[in-house]
Specification:
This protein is an alpha/beta fold and 244 residues long. The protein folds into 2 domains: 130 residues, Response regulator (Rossmann fold); 100 residues, Arc Repressor Mutant, subunit A (Orthogonal Bundle). It has 8 helices and 12 strands. The N terminus is likely disordered.
């Protein structure tokens, strides 16, 4: 059954980066597209001889890796990654021998998903792993964020600069957080709608437009009305200070 994109959500407001180490480009693109719909940022590998270096540059929050890869297998790269980082790792492989699963766990992997797989199972394992590793269900103080000369206080829901201070609604703050975390990248309307699906509330296309307009109006009160740019037919982008 195909899920409606508006009924899918990344469980939290944070944008997690997933590194997908998969040499089957058809499968890679399919999984990437589906994960992107859940508001995850997905990065692939360009050089399978240098996976560790790309891992270091990407700094992902979670790694999904196949066993059968060019040059070196997934076990090798799992071992290398684990020697440098405690990032969660999920194996995604067509190999079904018990020793493969045992080996992956011994090397420090967090889970094993066998191909062919149901995407709902994969996303459930991703969410469970992220929830467990990053403990994001507990209340933790949010950091202050500096953007375009203003300070965003996520705990108070305010944006302040030399011109003044404004208070944002939960949705306005959530939208701003998502855009600022990916500043100079286009965030699609579908991603925003998917991410805003929370507490069983339906966020329609029109509701998103209203929230974006209100956010811009509020930001304009402190001179940041042009800091969020519309990319026609694509989505929205938070600018850097130098580009305003």
């Amino acid at each position: 059954m195909k899920l409606n994109i508006c009924m899918m959500k990344n469980e939290v407001g944070f944008v997690f980066t997933i590194m997908l180490i998969e040499d089957d480009q058809t499968l890679f693109q399919e999984v990437k597209e589906r994960l992107t719909q859940w508001s995850y940022k997905v990065a692939g590998v360009t050089n399978f001889s240098n996976v560790l270096q790309e891992f270091t540059e990407i700094k992902p929050d979670l790694v999904i890796i196949d066993i059968q890869l060019p040059k070196f297998d997934g076990f090798h790269w799992c071992r290398m990654i684990r020697s440098h980082s405690n990032v969660p790792i999920i194996f995604l492989s067509s190999r079904d021998h018990p020793t493969d699963m045992v080996m992956s766990m011994q090397l420090g992997a967090d889970d094993f998903v066998q191909k062919p797989f149901h995407f709902d199972v994969l996303i459930a394992k991703i969410q469970a792993t992220l929830r467990r590793v990053y403990n994001y269900n507990t209340e933790q103080p949010l950091e202050l964020k500096t953007w375009c000369g203003a300070t965003i206080d996520f705990s108070k829901g305010t944006v302040s600069n030399g011109t003044g201070s404004i208070e944002l609604t939960k949705n306005e703050l959530f939208i701003l957080k998502l855009l600022v975390e990916r500043k100079n990248d286009i965030v699609t309307r579908d991603e925003l709608i998917t991410s805003l699906w929370d507490d069983e509330r339906f966020v329609s296309d029109n509701t998103l437009t209203v929230n974006i307009n209100r956010l811009r109006k509020r930001l304009a009160e402190i001179g940041l009305g042009g800091a969020i740019e519309t990319k026609v037919g694509q989505g929205y982008m938070a600018k850097e200070e130098s580009s305003i």
